[in-house]
Design brief:
By secondary structure, this protein is of the alpha+beta class. The protein has two domains: about 130 residues, no CATH class; about 110 residues, no CATH class. It is built from six helices and 16 strands. The protein has an eight-stranded antiparallel beta sheet with strand order 4-3-2-1-5-6-7-8, with helices on one face. Strands 11-10-9-13-14-15-16-12 form an eight-stranded antiparallel beta sheet. The radius of gyration is 29 Å and the shape is elongated.
């Protein structure tokens, strides 16, 4: 009986020791996580170039005069919210305890130099500031990552779309918007002027009355133009043409219907862009008769 009690006592001591060990390990992990940052870069604003690699595909985001551009994609503007989200997430990430740190693990977790799923390099004034190798997904919005010249692999939170190497995923879809208060719109056979925050149709004939609700609706489409993707150059006369004027700005929009593809071009940008069919159809209604009450 005494032997059994002694045995049980020893088992109990072992269990308590294991629990204490794990508790202290957790304490060390918490302490580590509170002090260790993913990036060692001091100033986020100094980053002026982001390079994302996936196999043979490379995407380069470059900051020029305070604006992020797609360096190898006609230098078109980037969705500022996306690039800010990527950089803010990387800079704010605090590392928990590493998943593994054996040299062979980079192969298994796909975070090696030659087998990583994504490879990001951050630059400031031409100099590399940070280099990260991203591997397999470890769950929803989670991914394994390894820092350059280190063996430790960590599990961090990061949305997968922020690692895309597709230019269109980063393109600012609002790049054709004037972003100023429009005070004049003209097209085939009509001219709309804004006076005292009210739209008026030029050359109203006796008995004609402007449909203010319809005018406001159609103008909202024109002021909130959103593109879908870059389109091929179209060498023909536009099907529709509109001119928008704002304080210090004059923009002409040319719209094309090319088979089942709808395209728009701004006089301020060389590229042609695809737009949604409903958007084209709404702009197609920008004709004088549609601004009058029936």
């Amino acid at each position: 009986m005494t032997k059994n009690i002694r045995f049980l006592f020893i088992v109990l001591l072992v269990q308590v020791s294991v629990i204490a060990y794990l508790w202290f390990q957790d304490t060390d992990i918490d302490s580590f996580a509170a002090t260790q940052s993913l990036l060692s870069v001091n100033n986020l604003s100094e980053i002026d170039k982001v390079e994302i690699n996936e196999g043979d595909k490379k995407l380069v985001l470059m900051k020029k005069e305070g604006q992020w551009l797609l360096s190898d994609y006609h230098e078109l503007p980037v969705n500022r919210g996306l690039v800010n989200s990527l950089l803010d997430t990387l800079f704010a990430t605090k590392l928990s305890w590493y998943v593994t740190r054996t040299k062979s693990s980079a192969e298994r977790f796909h975070t090696g130099v030659d087998n990583s799923k994504r490879h990001i390099i951050l630059y400031a004034d031409g100099a590399r500031q940070a280099e990260l190798f991203f591997g397999d997904s470890s769950g929803l919005n989670s991914i394994y990552v390894r820092r350059q010249s280190e063996d430790e692999i960590y599990n961090i939170k990061l949305k997968n779309y922020l690692l895309s190497v597709k230019e269109n995923d980063w393109l600012d879809k609002n790049l054709l918007q004037i972003r100023a208060e429009v005070n004049e719109i003209s097209g085939a056979g009509f001219r709309l002027l804004k006076n005292n925050k009210k739209w008026q149709l030029e050359d109203l004939k006796p008995g004609e009355e402007i449909n203010k609700e319809e005018v406001e609706l159609l103008i909202r489409y024109l002021e909130k133009i959103q593109v879908m993707d870059v389109a091929s150059v179209i060498n023909k006369k536009p099907d529709l043409t509109f001119i928008l004027k704002a304080k210090g700005k004059h923009v002409e929009y040319y719209l094309y219907k090319n088979d089942k593809t709808y395209v728009i071009k701004s006089s301020l940008i060389d590229q042609f862009f695809k737009i949604a069919p409903y958007f084209y159809e709404s702009l197609e209604k920008l004709q004088r008769q549609n601004f009058l009450k029936k």
